[in-house]
Design goal:
single chain; TIM Barrel; 2 domains; seven-stranded mixed beta sheet; two-stranded parallel sheet
């Protein structure tokens, strides 16, 4: 497997390709290991502004260009992410869902907690994602009435302070973290416009970048986003960006699994997981068997001095 990862790593550093990586709420140690590995392998972190200049204005691509983003706006990012990106000076874009900032809790947490509490009649999480937006919104409001939960999202003050960090760019992730393909035209416009307006007010800055919740793109999304002042949008499609063949409003990103081991995320960051392991698993080949066959043990060993922000 070392050879396969090395081949994909070499490919992703070709001068016409850019890697985009996103996470949600990673443990600090995992994020730091991923960043250290990328730096050691010759990757160069760029901001979303630099990415836009490369793609729209034909600026020169740094060797091994990689762009990091964080979706949702979990408050634990302030503890687990900020110290790491400051230590390594990593420019990072935070895509924020504004409803959770105002009310404190992400909507899916109500669904997950309702299951653990044994509430009857609550559909599964995936069922919520496939509902029309009006129905999903109404059902979540009912759960909010009977389930007071502690804040897990950033506050407006957190967003303001975050935006003042020179390493940070703030982007929109809609109001309600709504699946775009389940929204009516009016709902879609509200999600796109209101999130931009609120974030602009909270940060005192311009909001130019957008991330589709759950990767739920729509055919007229680029036109609507462009009409409402956005410059670029990111999906969850797991591919490299080809600077000679891309769409500014459908940019792909590789995901890091917040709860996954480093070796899994090493494969995901380089595209190995999507191209090889994920396909094998779709054929019902046992994941544990794959790990043994490809001898991941070496990659799992902590490196010398592998600490998180100076902590063991």
């Amino acid at each position: 497997m070392t050879g396969i990862v090395a081949w994909y790593t070499k490919k992703s550093r070709l001068p016409n390709l850019i890697s985009c990586i996103y996470v949600h709420n990673p443990p600090a140690r995992l994020l730091e290991r991923c960043i250290k590995w990328l730096i050691r392998k010759g990757y160069h972190f760029i901001s979303v502004e630099e990415l836009y200049d490369i793609l729209a204005n034909h600026k020169v691509v740094p060797p091994g260009a990689v762009c990091l983003s964080i979706d949702d706006g979990d408050r634990e990012n302030l503890i687990n992410v900020i110290p790491v990106i400051e230590k390594y000076r990593i420019p990072t874009c935070f895509f924020i869902a504004t409803e959770a900032v105002e009310n404190g809790v992400f909507w899916w947490t109500y669904v997950i907690r309702s299951k653990s509490m044994g509430l009857n009649g609550v559909p599964a999480l995936e069922a919520f994602k496939s509902m029309p937006e009006a129905e999903r919104f109404a059902r979540i409001k009912e759960l909010q009435k009977v389930m007071p939960l502690e804040r897990e999202a950033m506050t407006k003050e957190d967003i303001f302070k975050l935006a003042a960090n020179p390493l940070v760019t703030i982007g929109s992730h809609t109001v309600n973290h709504a699946c775009m393909d389940r929204c009516s035209k009016d709902e879609l416009l509200r999600e796109i416009r209101e999130s931009k307006l609120l974030l602009s007010q909270w940060t005192k800055g311009e909001i130019k970048y957008f991330s589709y919740p759950d990767g739920s793109t729509i055919s007229d999304g680029p036109e609507i986003l462009l009409d409402n002042g956005y410059s670029m949008a990111f999906t969850t499609r797991q591919e490299l960006i080809d600077i000679s063949n891309h769409h500014l409003f459908y940019l792909p990103r590789f995901s890091i699994n917040d709860k996954g081991p480093f070796v899994e995320n090493l494969c995901k960051m380089t595209g190995v997981w999507q191209k090889i392991i994920g396909r094998m698993m779709s054929l019902d080949i046992n994941a544990g068997f794959l790990f043994r066959v490809f001898s991941f043990r070496r990659a799992e060993r902590p490196e010398s001095g592998d600490t998180c922000c100076g902590k063991p």
